[in-house]
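Hey, I was hoping to borrow your eyes for a little while. A protein chain has come my way and I'm curious about its shape. Take your time with it, there's no hurry, and the full record follows here:
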Amino acid sequence: MILTCTACLAKLSIPDGKVPKIGSVTVACPKCQQKLQVAAKPTTEDGAGATGADEARGLAMVCVDPLHGQMSVKTALADLGYTVHIVNNPKEAVDRLWQAPYGLVILHEEYGGSADDNSVLKILQAMPMSVRRFIYLGLIGKQYRTLDSTTAFAKSVNFVVAETELANLKAIVQEAVSDNDRFYRVFREELRESGKL
Protein backbone atom coordinates (compact mmCIF):
# COMPACT_ATOMS: atom_id res chain seq x y z
CA MET A 1 0.00 0.00 0.00
CA ILE A 2 1.24 3.47 -0.85
CA LEU A 3 0.38 6.30 1.56
CA THR A 4 0.94 9.99 0.98
CA CYS A 5 1.74 12.09 4.02
CA THR A 6 -0.94 14.70 4.66
CA ALA A 7 1.65 17.22 5.87
CA CYS A 8 4.73 16.97 3.62
CA LEU A 9 3.28 14.88 0.72
CA ALA A 10 6.06 12.27 1.04
CA LYS A 11 5.12 8.85 -0.33
CA LEU A 12 5.37 5.93 2.08
CA SER A 13 5.32 2.30 1.04
CA ILE A 14 3.61 -0.02 3.53
CA PRO A 15 4.08 -3.73 2.75
CA ASP A 16 0.71 -5.47 2.25
CA GLY A 17 1.58 -7.88 5.06
CA LYS A 18 1.79 -4.95 7.48
CA VAL A 19 -1.64 -3.53 6.58
CA PRO A 20 -4.05 -4.67 9.32
CA LYS A 21 -6.84 -7.09 8.44
CA ILE A 22 -9.14 -5.43 11.01
CA GLY A 23 -9.07 -1.93 12.48
CA SER A 24 -6.17 0.43 11.88
CA VAL A 25 -2.68 1.35 13.04
CA THR A 26 -0.94 4.70 13.30
CA VAL A 27 2.47 5.26 11.73
CA ALA A 28 4.73 8.30 11.71
CA CYS A 29 6.00 9.81 8.47
CA PRO A 30 9.76 9.25 8.46
CA LYS A 31 10.30 12.68 6.88
CA CYS A 32 8.18 15.00 9.09
CA GLN A 33 6.84 12.71 11.87
CA GLN A 34 3.19 13.46 10.98
CA LYS A 35 0.90 10.74 12.38
CA LEU A 36 -0.90 8.78 9.63
CA GLN A 37 -3.56 6.14 10.04
CA VAL A 38 -3.33 2.89 8.07
CA ALA A 39 -6.76 1.26 7.92
CA ALA A 40 -7.70 -2.31 7.12
CA LYS A 41 -8.40 -3.00 3.47
CA PRO A 42 -12.15 -3.02 2.87
CA THR A 43 -13.48 -6.50 2.10
CA THR A 44 -16.55 -7.91 0.43
CA GLU A 45 -18.97 -10.33 2.10
CA ASP A 46 -16.96 -13.34 0.89
CA GLY A 47 -13.77 -11.89 2.40
CA ALA A 48 -12.16 -10.85 -0.88
CA GLY A 49 -10.54 -7.45 -1.12
CA ALA A 50 -12.87 -4.73 -2.30
CA THR A 51 -10.77 -2.94 -4.86
CA GLY A 52 -11.47 -1.78 -8.38
CA ALA A 53 -14.06 0.30 -10.10
CA ASP A 54 -17.04 -2.04 -9.72
CA GLU A 55 -16.86 -2.21 -5.93
CA ALA A 56 -16.17 1.49 -5.58
CA ARG A 57 -18.86 2.74 -7.96
CA GLY A 58 -21.46 3.41 -5.28
CA LEU A 59 -19.28 5.40 -2.88
CA ALA A 60 -18.83 9.15 -3.41
CA MET A 61 -17.00 11.78 -1.38
CA VAL A 62 -18.05 15.43 -1.41
CA CYS A 63 -15.32 17.96 -0.61
CA VAL A 64 -17.39 21.10 -1.02
CA ASP A 65 -18.03 23.74 1.63
CA PRO A 66 -21.65 24.68 2.40
CA LEU A 67 -21.13 28.12 0.82
CA HIS A 68 -20.09 26.53 -2.48
CA GLY A 69 -23.12 24.27 -2.94
CA GLN A 70 -22.44 21.25 -0.73
CA MET A 71 -26.12 20.21 -0.50
CA SER A 72 -26.67 20.60 -4.25
CA VAL A 73 -23.76 18.25 -4.89
CA LYS A 74 -24.95 15.75 -2.29
CA THR A 75 -28.48 15.71 -3.71
CA ALA A 76 -27.29 15.24 -7.31
CA LEU A 77 -25.04 12.31 -6.36
CA ALA A 78 -27.67 10.67 -4.16
CA ASP A 79 -30.15 10.95 -7.06
CA LEU A 80 -27.62 9.03 -9.19
CA GLY A 81 -27.56 6.22 -6.63
CA TYR A 82 -24.26 7.00 -4.89
CA THR A 83 -23.74 6.59 -1.17
CA VAL A 84 -22.52 10.08 -0.34
CA HIS A 85 -19.99 10.97 2.35
CA ILE A 86 -19.55 14.67 3.15
CA VAL A 87 -16.21 15.35 4.79
CA ASN A 88 -15.73 18.18 7.27
CA ASN A 89 -12.16 19.20 6.46
CA PRO A 90 -9.24 18.35 4.15
CA LYS A 91 -7.53 16.10 6.73
CA GLU A 92 -10.66 13.96 7.06
CA ALA A 93 -10.92 13.79 3.26
CA VAL A 94 -7.34 12.55 2.88
CA ASP A 95 -7.74 10.01 5.69
CA ARG A 96 -10.94 8.64 4.15
CA LEU A 97 -9.38 8.38 0.68
CA TRP A 98 -6.99 5.75 2.04
CA GLN A 99 -9.64 3.95 4.08
CA ALA A 100 -12.46 3.39 1.60
CA PRO A 101 -12.66 2.71 -2.14
CA TYR A 102 -14.30 5.90 -3.40
CA GLY A 103 -15.44 5.64 -7.00
CA LEU A 104 -16.24 9.34 -7.26
CA VAL A 105 -14.83 12.42 -5.55
CA ILE A 106 -16.29 15.87 -6.15
CA LEU A 107 -13.93 18.60 -4.98
CA HIS A 108 -14.30 22.38 -5.00
CA GLU A 109 -11.12 24.18 -6.00
CA GLU A 110 -11.24 26.31 -2.83
CA TYR A 111 -12.04 23.45 -0.41
CA GLY A 112 -10.13 24.04 2.80
CA GLY A 113 -8.44 27.20 1.55
CA SER A 114 -7.41 28.66 -1.76
CA ALA A 115 -7.38 27.20 -5.24
CA ASP A 116 -3.57 27.39 -5.31
CA ASP A 117 -3.14 25.48 -2.06
CA ASN A 118 -5.79 22.72 -2.17
CA SER A 119 -4.24 19.91 -0.11
CA VAL A 120 -6.85 17.32 -1.15
CA LEU A 121 -6.21 17.98 -4.84
CA LYS A 122 -2.43 17.77 -4.27
CA ILE A 123 -2.81 14.37 -2.57
CA LEU A 124 -5.02 13.06 -5.37
CA GLN A 125 -2.60 14.33 -8.03
CA ALA A 126 0.31 12.62 -6.26
CA MET A 127 -1.48 9.27 -5.82
CA PRO A 128 0.02 6.29 -7.62
CA MET A 129 -1.93 5.59 -10.80
CA SER A 130 -2.66 2.04 -9.62
CA VAL A 131 -4.91 3.63 -6.96
CA ARG A 132 -5.93 6.88 -8.64
CA ARG A 133 -7.33 5.29 -11.80
CA PHE A 134 -10.27 3.93 -9.79
CA ILE A 135 -11.21 7.35 -8.38
CA TYR A 136 -13.22 9.47 -10.79
CA LEU A 137 -12.46 13.06 -9.80
CA GLY A 138 -14.58 16.09 -10.60
CA LEU A 139 -13.33 19.60 -9.81
CA ILE A 140 -15.74 22.51 -9.33
CA GLY A 141 -14.47 26.04 -9.89
CA LYS A 142 -15.54 29.59 -10.55
CA GLN A 143 -13.54 30.10 -13.74
CA TYR A 144 -13.98 26.67 -15.40
CA ARG A 145 -16.06 25.79 -18.44
CA THR A 146 -18.03 22.63 -17.68
CA LEU A 147 -16.52 19.45 -19.17
CA ASP A 148 -13.55 21.33 -20.65
CA SER A 149 -11.10 18.48 -21.25
CA THR A 150 -8.07 20.77 -21.58
CA THR A 151 -8.64 22.27 -18.13
CA ALA A 152 -9.32 18.83 -16.68
CA PHE A 153 -6.04 17.55 -18.12
CA ALA A 154 -4.12 20.57 -16.81
CA LYS A 155 -5.56 20.03 -13.30
CA SER A 156 -5.05 16.21 -13.41
CA VAL A 157 -8.76 15.54 -12.85
CA ASN A 158 -11.32 13.64 -14.88
CA PHE A 159 -13.74 16.51 -15.42
CA VAL A 160 -14.38 20.11 -14.40
CA VAL A 161 -17.64 21.87 -13.62
CA ALA A 162 -18.42 25.58 -13.58
CA GLU A 163 -19.72 26.59 -10.16
CA THR A 164 -22.61 28.36 -11.89
CA GLU A 165 -23.81 25.02 -13.35
CA LEU A 166 -24.31 23.08 -10.10
CA ALA A 167 -28.04 22.93 -10.83
CA ASN A 168 -27.15 20.63 -13.76
CA LEU A 169 -24.63 18.53 -11.82
CA LYS A 170 -26.64 15.31 -11.99
CA ALA A 171 -26.64 15.31 -15.81
CA ILE A 172 -23.01 16.48 -15.95
CA VAL A 173 -21.76 13.67 -13.68
CA GLN A 174 -23.88 11.11 -15.52
CA GLU A 175 -22.37 12.14 -18.87
CA ALA A 176 -18.81 12.34 -17.56
CA VAL A 177 -18.92 8.97 -15.78
CA SER A 178 -20.54 7.30 -18.80
CA ASP A 179 -17.78 8.63 -21.09
CA ASN A 180 -15.12 7.42 -18.67
CA ASP A 181 -16.68 3.96 -18.42
CA ARG A 182 -16.71 3.60 -22.21
CA PHE A 183 -13.11 4.80 -22.42
CA TYR A 184 -11.76 2.38 -19.77
CA ARG A 185 -14.03 -0.63 -20.39
CA VAL A 186 -11.54 -2.63 -22.49
CA PHE A 187 -8.65 -1.75 -20.19
CA ARG A 188 -10.54 -2.98 -17.10
CA GLU A 189 -11.64 -6.15 -18.88
CA GLU A 190 -8.01 -6.91 -19.70
CA LEU A 191 -6.99 -6.30 -16.08
CA ARG A 192 -9.69 -8.71 -14.87
CA GLU A 193 -8.71 -11.39 -17.38
CA SER A 194 -5.05 -11.13 -16.39
CA GLY A 195 -5.95 -11.37 -12.69
CA LYS A 196 -4.70 -7.89 -11.85
CA LEU A 197 -8.10 -6.55 -10.82
